[in-house]
Each structure stands twice: as C-alpha cells, then as structure tokens.
Fold this protein.
Amino acid sequence: MMKISWHGLRQWLTGYRLILIAALMVFAIMLLYGFPDSSGPWFDEGINLGIAKSWVQHGVYSMQIGSDTFVAERSLLITTNYPLLGFIALSFKLFGVGLAQAKFVMIGFLIVFVFLFFKFIKKHYGSEAAVIGLVILVTFSPLYGNGKSALGEIPGLTYFLLGLLWLDKRKPIQIFVTGLWFGLAASTKSLYILFLMSVAVGEIWFAIKNKKIDYQRWLLLVFGATIPLLLLIFTLLPKEISNDFFQKTLQLYTNPYKVEHAIGINLKRFFTETTPLHFALLWLTFLIVKAFRRFRSLTIFEVIVTAFITLNIIFYLKTVGWYRYFFPAHILAILLFPGALLEVRQHLNISSRIKFYGFCLVVFALFFAQSINLLAHLYDPVYFDPAPRRFAEAVSRLVPKDAPLLIIDNPALAFLVDHPLMYQYVQTSPHLIVGKNLLQDGNLPPYILASEWNKIPYPNIQLTVKDEYDKVMQDEKNILYRFRN
C-alpha cells in the first residue's frame, strides 16, 4: 500500500490546482447555463435594454414609449448608464437587437470581472487566498442572478477593480488612467457615485498616515474621474434645464424608493435571513481580524473598499430591502475575506496540522453550502425564465403589424416584442410614470399586453374598459387582450 506523507499531501493541496480547475468549470457551466434566458429578463433590465435599443434604432438615448415618442426625463429614467449601455448598443449595432446579443455582453463583463477579482486577491494576499476567493465567488448564486442581467452592478465593479489594481501606479499618465477607471465605475450606476467618496476617504487616510499630501496625484485622479462624469451628466440633461428638473432629480437621489420605517426592518435581516447573514460572516471576519491589529495593517485599497461597503450598507438600510441593493458590498466582502481568513490561520497558536484541517473545513463548508444553494435555485425565475421571450415571440406573430399595441408596466416585454406600433405606459420608479394613457383617453388600442386588470398598479386607468376586451393569450404573469370591436 502506497504511503502518502503529510508534507506531500499538504504540498499538493496547497497547490489548489484541482480546486481551481473545478471552480473554473463551475463558472463556465453557469455562464452558459440557460442561455439566453438566464437570468430571466425583468423590469429594470427591460428599461436598460430599451434605452440601448432606441439608441441604436432611432439615435435617441432614452426609452421609446410611442411610435415617435421617448422618455424626456432621462435623469429620472437612467440609473444604469453608458459604460454598460454603450457596449450593449455596440453589440446591437453589430449583431442585431436581441436578448442574446445583450447577454453576450454581460457574459463578457463577468469573465473580465472574475479574472480581475482573482488577479487582485493574488496580488495582495497570495495565490492560496486567490483560489479561496474564486471558489466562494463562482458558487455565489447572486453573481449570476445579477451579473447575467443587463444591470450595472458587475460592470461598475469591473471598472472599480481596474482602478484598485492601478492604485499603486506612480507615473502621471497611470494616475490619470486610475482616475478614469474610477470615473467610469461611478458613471455606470447611480449608486456607484459612492465609489468616488470611498476613494476620497482612502486617499485622505493615506495622506494622514504618511503625513504628506500629494497634490499632483489628487489633481490627476480628479481630472481622470471628471471626464467620464461630465459625459454622464451630458446623458442625463434634458433639452431644457429647469428648476423642476433639478428638484425631481434631487428627490430621486435623496429618497429613490419613497419608503418609511425601512431601517429597522432591513437591519433585522442581517440576523434572520441567510443572504445578509452570509454577508455579515464575511464582512465581520475581516473587521475583527483588522481590529485585533488595531487597524495598523490596513492598506489604502482596504480602506477604500471598507468605506464603500459601509456606505453601501447605509444606503441599503433605507431601501425596500431587496438583496441586490447590497450586492456590490457583498461581492467586495468576498474580495477581502480570504486574506483575513489566512491571517487568522497564521496567528492561531495551535499545531500546523489542526490549522490546516480547520482551514480546509471552513473553506469546504462555504463551498458546499453555496453550491447546494446554487443548485437549489437553478430553475428559479430569477436565474432561468424562458417564458418572457417565448411570450413576446408569440405576441409578435399574433398581433398585426398595423394594429397599435399598448404594453402596460412591462419594459422587458416591450423590448422583446417586435412591433412597429407599440406604446408603453409604465411606472419606471416611484418618481416617474411615463407613456400616454390610451385607456383613459377613450381611444382604445386594438391590443393590450398587461397583467390581470385588478393588478394593474395605476388608479388613473379606467378599469371599466375591461368589458371591452377579451383574453387571447396568457401565461403565468402576462395577458394579451384584444378589443372586441
């Protein structure tokens, strides 16, 4: 019987080659799983895709709501911007407008992000930590639920990681490009303005620690970040700037969800629900390890990431409580966790064998728990839902091209349906309702695509017209109505 030495076994395991290969296989399978219906298209994604579609087809950077009408209030509509939508529009331009073309862009961003994630951890914490971080990341189901949707979370984090990787550069042009990466990150999604605040905190902390202010560095960073931000502002400005524009925009950014008493409810989630608890485990591990060192070991990038996570959680507490609102903080907690875990192992006053087995047990427990959760949710509509695409294809075939079609409160289907006389009536946020209410005007459209009449969320729609329509097709969520004439 062949004997395996402890040293040889440990040397083989610490190479992590098989674990790395397994993690990459999981990642590749999840990227291609359910294409193009994973993740299933939904409301916010539909808005983003609708903006890219009208940009390519009509040259208008907004969402189409009528045959020649577009949303004018872009500052209230656009929360995910050109650093992502530009690539989706380019894909539409080159390969045609469609869901698959948009998903290819998101797959590309995910591949780049995971590569940068691995490279970043390896650079700052070593190869062993990088593999641990990769294993946790690729078995983390929200990575695919959020990352494969045409949303700004992963693209913004990708630009942010590029900025962090360039943070230690010293040449003026490199510092300028670092600022450019951070500016693109902040321009990707309205929440990511917090990136700039976090970078400012890190730079100030670093200046205080070194008792020296590098004015040239700060100016170059600001100059680099300003260029993408100016373009961001340009995309949001209306044709005519008014006090009403500034008032509504300020209301959106200060209280985007118009919810009350949310802080206590959301805070409770971190003690009672699995996803917030998972985040808390990762995040508190890092904070406790650093606290024992009296935060002396904090690097500038750790300060920046810590500042952003803190700001993101504060923002989340004021929202309606959906987990995707603290998804960026969750991902960055995974980024910091492996280094903290290795530091814990290093300072434990126990035998190396117990350290090794205990460490492997922790990593395996996280991997096992996340893999089970990933498999359990594969067929959830959030992760795989072909119904919207199939329903839209059926509507496109059924509705005559010369018959107006009104789509109520479903920008995802509005993007997927191929129809030249399509109108939308939709509440894009608590601050904005767009589209012409054809039902209220009495000029009833021949076809309406909506949910059940009693679930349409607008009290100003005259629901009495329901007797004028018949259901001609429906699935679990959507119904196509036809006017009796």
Q: What stands out?
A: Residues 401 and 419 are 6 Å apart (CA to CA). Residues 99-125 form the longest helix (27 residues). The chain is about 60% helix and 5% strand. The beta strands are 405-408, 422-429, 432-434, 447-450, 469-474, 479-483.
